[in-house]
User: Which sequence fits this backbone?
């Protein structure tokens, strides 16, 4: 019943904004207006009902047996151990999304590199009608292909060399409109970690929506993630999105991270499709807990002149008992000289910066980051909340000292 109460509360706010249904306004036919108001209220409740949902992407993927494959940034990278297994050579687009206001379709892609020229020469059809590429927008770790279209496109077909790729066209989702939303990507992180993380953002940052991209977990399925989010944050809307693409390799030398197309690409799928009408957006990982004073990080971004703030990060460490899985609440230790990590960010999607390209540590190429650092929020990076996919993290040496902020904030963020 808690979900329905939340839905009625949210719907009532909407109804009060409609002059013909607001009792403060004059009504010439009170009984008829009251009946009309109840009907509208119940209709809106259906739309406002807080529930977990599963969304499917519509990707375009080249066959691995075909002749066309994405080149690496440098040919020498092919000799790096693990590069071939992690590098995405065949995904053309993570999703194909209709942009009604632009009368266009946008393909959110990994870096195109050698795909660009044959794509420009390809035969592209939208619902059987030939279409041309209007532009290719290039970003640091992903690209966008824009194609003009009619008012309600349903399917795209691309004849690329000997291959024909086809996909349904995704429609922008207004489910999270007006909500403060947290975006995360994850693979096989413990469900207890996901629960603690979601509870933290729902309670301390008052998040009312979550977009959770699952990058091919094998320990559990999307339904398990939905159930976990519902338990941890029962008054928020949860959108779980299976996204089983290659994550990309970390290279030993610069450019170390530029081949990780998935991270940036999937954030911009969210921007175009799921959170474009949201009130605020935060992008964090499961091991990252933003702590704020006075107001939430969402409110801070809304109050900022540019509608955008970055949050400085600091490592926090755990000393769990032998054999015990570390939880966020165990990360109450730091070094005497604090060890920082890269920032994360919050943005209002309809701001100038919010409408530009998003990446892991900032928006629009990070150019504004040094000017918009939060003075009242920090991000606690929980060192042992990890599957060890990137590197082994286990630093619980004798030099650690207690962190009062982490002790006060994280200790209560444990969902049983």
Assistant:
């Amino acid at each position: 019943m808690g979900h329905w109460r939340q839905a009625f509360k949210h719907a009532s706010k909407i109804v009060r904004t409609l002059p013909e249904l607001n009792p403060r306004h004059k009504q010439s036919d009170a009984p008829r207006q009251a009946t009309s108001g109840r009907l509208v209220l119940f209709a809106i409740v259906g739309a406002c009902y807080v529930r977990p949902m599963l969304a499917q992407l519509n990707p375009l993927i080249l066959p691995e047996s075909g002749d066309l494959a994405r080149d690496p940034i440098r040919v020498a990278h092919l000799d790096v151990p693990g590069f071939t297994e992690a590098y995405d050579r065949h995904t053309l687009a993570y999703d194909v999304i209709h942009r009604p206001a632009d009368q266009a379709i946008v393909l959110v892609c990994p870096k195109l590199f050698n795909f660009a020229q044959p794509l420009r020469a390809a035969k592209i059809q939208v619902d059987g009608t030939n279409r041309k590429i209007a532009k290719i927008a290039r970003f640091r770790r992903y690209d966008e292909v824009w194609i003009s279209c009619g008012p309600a496109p349903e399917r795209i077909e691309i004849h690329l060399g000997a291959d024909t790729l086809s996909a349904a066209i995704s429609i922008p989702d207004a489910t999270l409109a007006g909500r403060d939303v947290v975006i995360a990507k994850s693979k096989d992180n413990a469900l207890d970690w996901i629960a603690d993380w979601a509870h933290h953002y729902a309670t301390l940052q008052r998040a009312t929506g979550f977009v959770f991209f699952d990058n091919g977990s094998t320990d559990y399925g999307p339904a398990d993630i939905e159930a976990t989010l519902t338990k941890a944050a029962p008054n928020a809307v949860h959108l779980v999105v299976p996204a089983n693409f290659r994550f990309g390799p970390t290279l030993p030398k610069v450019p170390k991270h530029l081949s990780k197309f998935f991270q940036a690409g999937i954030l911009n799928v969210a921007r175009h499709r799921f959170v474009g009408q949201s009130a605020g957006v935060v992008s964090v990982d499961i091991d990252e807990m933003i702590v704020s004073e006075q107001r939430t990080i969402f409110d801070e971004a809304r109050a900022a002149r540019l509608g955008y703030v970055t949050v400085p990060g600091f490592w926090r460490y755990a000393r769990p008992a032998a054999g015990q899985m570390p939880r966020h609440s165990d990360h109450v230790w730091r070094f005497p000289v604090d060890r920082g990590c890269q920032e994360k960010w919050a943005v209002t999607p309809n701001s100038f910066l919010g409408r530009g390209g998003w990446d892991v540590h900032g928006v629009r190429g990070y150019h504004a980051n040094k000017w918009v650092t939060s003075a009242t929020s920090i991000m606690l990076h929980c060192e042992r909340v990890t599957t060890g996919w990137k590197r082994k993290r286990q630093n619980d040496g004798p030099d650690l000292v207690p962190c009062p902020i982490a002790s006060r904030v994280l200790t209560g963020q444990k969902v049983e």
Q: What stands out?
A: The two ends are 21 Å apart (CA to CA). Residues 2-49 form one domain. The first strand starts at residue 52 and ends at 54.
